[in-house]
Design goal:
The complex is a heterotrimer of chains A (about 350), B (about 70) and C (about 250). Chain A is of the alpha/beta class and about 350 residues long. Helix content of chain A is about 40%, strand content about 20%. Chain A folds into two domains: about 190 residues, Rossmann fold (3-Layer(aba) Sandwich), CATH 3.40.50.970; about 110 residues, Rossmann fold (3-Layer(aba) Sandwich). In chain A, helix 4 packs parallel to helix 6 and helix 13 packs across helix 14. Chain B is mostly beta strands and about 70 residues long. Chain B contains one helix and four strands; from the N terminus they run βββαβ. Chain B has a two-stranded antiparallel sheet. Chain B is elongated. By secondary structure, chain C is α/β, with parallel strands linked by helices. Chain C contains ten helices and ten strands. In chain C, the strands form two sheets. In chain C, strands 3-2-4-5-9-8-10 form a seven-stranded mixed sheet, sandwiched between helices. A two-stranded antiparallel ribbon of chain C has the order 6-7. Chain C is globular and about 60 Å long. Classes of the chains: A alpha/beta (about 350), B mainly beta (about 70), C alpha/beta (about 250).
């Protein structure tokens, strides 16, 4: 089959991937650095291509709750927004985690806090991986660092969401959302029929036939013992995810003496820093977490036997660095370097930081 | 006109003693008992045998505890 | 005298579309009656196998325990958003939300108005009892002027909190709404009218005519601190004048 290649923006790639993976519904709302997802989907008229529903909601709050309704009925639903909009969705996300509903949520992160800036940022890390809403829950969080990964992780996101009946977040940023790169597209997957949905999601509210009791989608459980058991069930799920779904990429780590850990746009820049550092005789390597939850703790622990120090490069005031320190547990020094306000670090600055700290 | 005979069955254990059914009965068939059910509510009961099966009581009962029977007598 | 309590003489019994779970509602609360009417309509229109209901947060938060149909629990105020997605993704299903005044007219105002404005093909069952019941009787958007509540202990001060909202009249102005009516369920005559209204609403929904809103002015004995019959009488004397019953928008007056 001839490869289908197309030059696309990151945000558009997510839209195309949603259509091609056979998603049933996208519910969005305009906010800068990601409005192209909704614009692209509207222009593609997926309703005619696959019957997919695309709707602009009255707010991000309404949009995430439309996703909730769709997911509760077994449908493949996706939404996207950017930092302030994602904050508005947190209650809905917590409800979906509690009701164990699958969906994909794209956050094209911008500088914050508050209205912040529309330049890229990575300060929503904690919100994504530590649970931005109320209660003990986790979002499987994927961090694309290319337009191809924006496309691929939309598809992977749905796969993981339905495998674990859990929301999946794509933590991207303004740079990756807006940049254009070549994308290899996949074949159009048929949207599932109602029969297939009923088979795949027997828990969904597809309409109660005589043959079964009514299905209820809720995160409400007033009796503490039952609610505790529900929580234990979620925690067992997250343990399973941590064991089976860790993904990361290593670049020139085999002989690295210093390790950069970075995701998304920061990882792209760090890759250049590794190359330049080696030209200056510094043996640097890059570990790029692809899943921020589940975090690649084992790999980081392993690297403590080999490297003299680790630098977390992230466009925020130091968030992932905490998870790295937890994994390293004091064995080697772990430092952080992060430009803020939407500024991006340069490879020179990264090398300078490594020299300074180690 | 053929005489209509009605009858009601009240699930007294599910009655919450709200008394909403009492004023709507055209024949004052239904009244509140002095006895209480397991939950401690004074329940409604058929106090007289002049029910005409109009179901007024049943359709205003918030807990739907009244079943109604109706027969046209020859 | 012949015992006529036999199947052949059955005149009225509980519908199959209600589960046999005992309702948690306070004695005499209109919610139970409204649940029963919605369930009876679903049964009579033979929609049980394709009905999806959405419960709010409020006294009827546990509605899904009582309806023997597939149900989803929405976050406070968001039921119309869930219903929007479900109805668009299952266009032939009977999708309805069941909401109180706090859920629909306070936190969920945007979702209500925009679902109605888009003409989503859903039925909204809007129970207006002028108070937040579940949380203990606080003032709601439909609390009447000078009406006492736990957060308007000296009566609603319109200068401070604005006047009560007439959501049905508000959404009736949106082209997306097809049938908007306000009913009550405290007396047999009203119950029969409400059931007819609900039946029409679900029929219009099945004919994909857009958004149907059935507001039911109901009592809240605990919140209003009255006996059930007293609260129904108070409702007639105080709620009905401000929230007049009857059809507000019918299909022929576009």
């Amino acid at each position: 089959m001839k490869k289908e290649l197309r030059l696309m923006k990151g945000n558009e790639a997510v839209g195309e991937a949603a259509i091609r993976v056979g998603a049933d519904g996208y519910f969005g709302y305009p906010i800068t650095t990601q409005s192209e997802v909704l614009e692209y989907l509207m222009s593609e008229k997926p309703h005619e291509r696959t019957g997919m529903v695309v709707l602009q909601a009255e707010s991000e709050v309404a949009a995430i709750n439309m996703v909730y309704g769709a997911a509760g009925a077994g449908k493949m639903a996706i939404t996207s927004s950017s930092s302030p909009g994602i904050s508005l969705k947190q209650e809905g996300i917590s409800y979906m985690a509690g009701a164990e509903l699958p969906c994909v949520i794209l956050n094209v992160v911008r500088g914050g806090p508050g209205l912040g800036t529309i330049q890229p940022g990575q300060a929503d890390y904690f919100q994504a991986v530590k649970g931005g809403g109320h209660g003990d829950y986790k979002l499987i969080t994927l961090a694309p660092s290319s337009v191809q990964e924006m496309y691929d992780f939309t598809i992977l996101g749905f796969e993981l969401a339905f495998k674990y009946r859990n929301p999946v977040m794509l933590l991207s940023d303004g740079a990756i959302g807006q940049m254009m790169e070549k994308v290899e597209l996949t074949e159009q997957k048929e949207r599932r029929t109602t029969e297939e949905i009923v088979k795949q999601c027997p828990w969904a509210t597809t309409g109660k036939p005589k043959s079964r009791d009514h299905n209820i989608i809720t995160s409400l459980e007033l009796q503490s013992d039952k609610q505790e058991e529900l929580n234990h069930k979620l925690q067992r799920k997250y343990k399973q995810v941590e064991e089976d779904e860790v993904r990361y990429e290593t670049i020139q780590c085999e002989d690295a003496e210093y390790l950069i850990i970075a995701f998304g746009t920061s990882a792209r820049i760090a890759q250049k820093a590794v190359k330049e550092a080696r030209e200056q005789g510094i043996k640097m390597g890059l570990l790029r977490p692809i899943t921020l939850f589940p975090f690649p703790k084992k790999k980081i622990m392993e690297m403590t036997q080999q490297v003299k120090g680790m630098l977390s490069v992230e466009m925020n005031a130091g968030q992932m660095v905490e998870d790295i320190r937890l994994a390293v547990n004091g064995k080697v020094p772990v430092e952080h370097f992060g430009r803020l306000g939407g500024n991006m670090p340069s490879s020179e600055e990264i090398i300078e930081q490594v020299r300074k700290h180690f | 006109m053929a005489k209509i005979k009605g009858d009601i069955v009240i699930d007294i254990e599910r009655c919450k003693g709200c008394q909403v059914c009492v004023p709507v009965c055209p024949n004052d068939t239904i009244a509140m008992s002095d006895k209480v059910n397991a939950k401690g509510f004074k329940y409604a009961f058929k106090a007289q045998d002049n029910c005409i099966g109009c179901a007024n009581c049943a359709i205003v009962c918030p807990d739907g505890v009244i079943t109604v029977y109706k027969k046209k007598m020859k | 005298m012949e015992d006529i309590k036999k199947a052949e003489y059955l005149a009225y019994k509980k519908t199959e579309v209600l589960t046999d779970k005992v309702l948690h509602y306070c004695p005499g609360c209109g919610h139970g009656t409204i649940h029963r009417l919605v369930a009876e309509v679903i049964e009579e229109l033979d929609l049980q196998h394709k009905t999806i209901g959405i419960a709010p947060v409020g006294c009827s938060v546990l509605a899904y325990e009582y309806f023997n149909v597939d149900f989803q629990e929405a976050a406070h105020g968001r039921a119309p958003a869930l219903a929007t997605a479900i109805s668009r993704l299952y266009p032939d299903h009977a999708v309805f939300t069941y909401q109180g005044d706090g859920d629909l007219a306070a936190i969920g105002t945007a979702e209500t108005i925009h679902a109605c404005n888009r003409g989503e093909n859903i039925v909204i069952v809007f129970v207006n009892n002028g108070i937040y019941g579940m949380t203990g009787g606080q003032m709601a958007p439909t609390t009447l002027e000078n009406m006492k509540s736990s957060t308007s202990p000296y009566g609603r001060d319109v200068k401070m909190m604005g006047s009560p909202m007439k959501m049905s009249e508000l959404v009736a102005n949106l082209p997306g709404t097809h049938y908007v009516t306000r009913q009550a369920v405290h007396k047999p005559g009203h119950v029969r009218k409400t059931k007819r209204a609900l039946k029409k609403a679900f029929q219009y929904q099945q004919e994909k005519k857009g958004t149907q809103l059935v507001e039911i002015v109901s009592n809240c004995n605990s919140g209003w601190k009255m006996t059930p019959n007293k609260s129904n009488q108070w409702m007639e004397e105080n709620m009905f004048p401000f929230f007049p019953l009857g059809d507000i928008k019918t299909p022929d007056d576009k």
